Amino acid sequence: MCLFSFLVLIIFSFAFGTGLKSFKGIIPGILWVAFIFSGLLGLSRSFGVERDKGTLPGLLLCPVSPWEIFLAKMIGTLIFTVIMEIFTLLVFTILYNQNFLPFLLPLGLVIFLGTLGFSIIGTIFSAMSSTTRTRDVMLSILVFPISVPVIIAAVKATGLILDGTSIQTVFSWLKILVAFDFVFLLLAYLTFGFIMEE
Amino acid sequence: MTPKRIIKIPFEIITFLAMLAALYAIFLYAPVEKTMGLVQKIFYIHVPAAFLAFLGFFITFIASILYLYKRDLKWDAAAFCSAEIGVIFCTIVLITGPIWAKPIWNVWWTWDPRLTTTLILWFIYVAYLMLRGVVSEHQRANFSAVFGIIGFVNVPITFLAIRLWRSIHPVLITSRGINISTPMKHTLALTFLAFCLLFFCLLKSRIKLEKMRTDTEMVSALFEDKIHYQTN
């Protein structure tokens, strides 16, 4: 995941060349493309490994509810994605000479909320797509349309924070991120049992 | 001829007649719009199709919930067929929209909230249909029901996010300003009616087809079992 996001950043610097330094507006876009594409790699492994090794029935036999399996999987994905994102930010700082330190706290919050939303829907769809033959393709086709609000809100909020605007202007975007996370946690709670049925 | 059959035939004929009447109204009854000209007539197809696309996806949503609640495969079939027809109408909307927009707005596409949400909606339900194609038989109904629910719940959040996203920049075209004359209203009402009839006509025959397909599959499975049993 880390290596992949590193590569995405390199590709972007080739794609934009020297134009990147003069145009600050595309920084949040580059960051989130790196986050989401690399995050998707981690997601497909989340349940894919269980299917490949045939350990999913064992997991289902454990005396825990599907909701707990979901939470565990989701938190696992979240932790790895956040580690990858910290690494990506470090590499970005070095490659593009962009200082994130002054905005660390609000930026961290936005990235966390965005990643949480992405991990929630990603975990649901990873459980679905892991049963299919075209696993990775299906996962991206399912995840991307649903994650549109997360991507829009996260990219916009990141852009506003990097511009140094006050927290009030970012607030409406944070509301969308929080609403998305809540709604989809609730939906996962209600529906994950049906996905785990064999 | 059973009584059921007597009721069935008129429904399709009524739909056919209503579509003919709608075509007549669109091209001969409704006046040509002053500023937009002939291209405005696409509006009579575009608006009902948009409504029916949303209706189709809404039926998918409700049928998905009912399936998970009742565990009756007929709701799964209804959700699937409705999504399929919804995608067809959504495609019509996305094709007729740009045809109208090019001469009127001078662009094929703008990132207006309604347009963008419709496009995302199209992607979601194409994904829904694809998911059904790749998932194994015994999990298909559950997975697609969950996706049908998630996809629909996502729509208002997407719309909200896109509206907020666009309001940062000045939007060139805010409203289409629908202020139409009475014959135009009549035409629109008639096309709405005709399209609704067409929608339910398609839905009904599609569900019937789906039921026939599952029945045939069941019979052939039974038949194969029997042959298998006899040869052993």
What's this entry about, in short?
The complex is a heterodimer of chains A (198) and B (232). By secondary structure, chain A is mainly alpha-helical.
First-last Cα distance of chain A: 30 Å
Give start-end ranges of low-pLDDT stretches of chain A.
none
Main sheet of chain A, how many strands, which sense, barrel? none
Give the class of chain A from helix and strand content and strand pairing: mainly alpha
Structural class of chain B: mainly alpha
Helical segment count of chain A? 9
Mean pLDDT of chain B: 82
Distance between the termini of chain B: 44 Å
Total tally of structural domains of chain A: 1
**Average of the residue pLDDT scores of chain A:** 86
> What fraction of residues of chain B sit in β-strands?
under 5%
Q: What's the helix count of chain B?
A: 6
Q: How many domains comprise the coordinates of chain B?
A: 1
Main sheet attributes: strand count, strand direction, barrel closure of chain B: none
Order of helices and strands of chain A: HHHHHHHHH
Task: Compile the SSE list and pairings.
The complex is a heterodimer of chains A (198) and B (232).
Chain A: H1 2-16, H2 19-22, H3 27-53, H4 56-61, H5 66-96, H6 104-129, H7 135-146, H8 148-162, H9 167-196
Chain B: H1 3-29, H2 43-70, H3 73-105, H4 113-134, H5 137-167, H6 182-231
Descriptive notes:
The complex is a heterodimer of chains A (198) and B (232). With 198 residues, chain A is mainly α. Chain A has one domain. Chain A has nine helices and no strands. In chain A, helix 5 crosses helix 6 and helix 6 runs antiparallel to helix 8. The mean pLDDT of chain A is 86. Chain B has one domain. Helix content of chain B is 82%, strand content 0%. The longest helix of chain B is centred in the C-terminal third of the chain and has 50 residues. Chain B is globular and about 75 Å long. Chain B starts with a helix and ends with a helix. At the A-B interface, helix 6, helix 7, helix 8 and helix 9 of A face helix 4 and helix 5 of B.
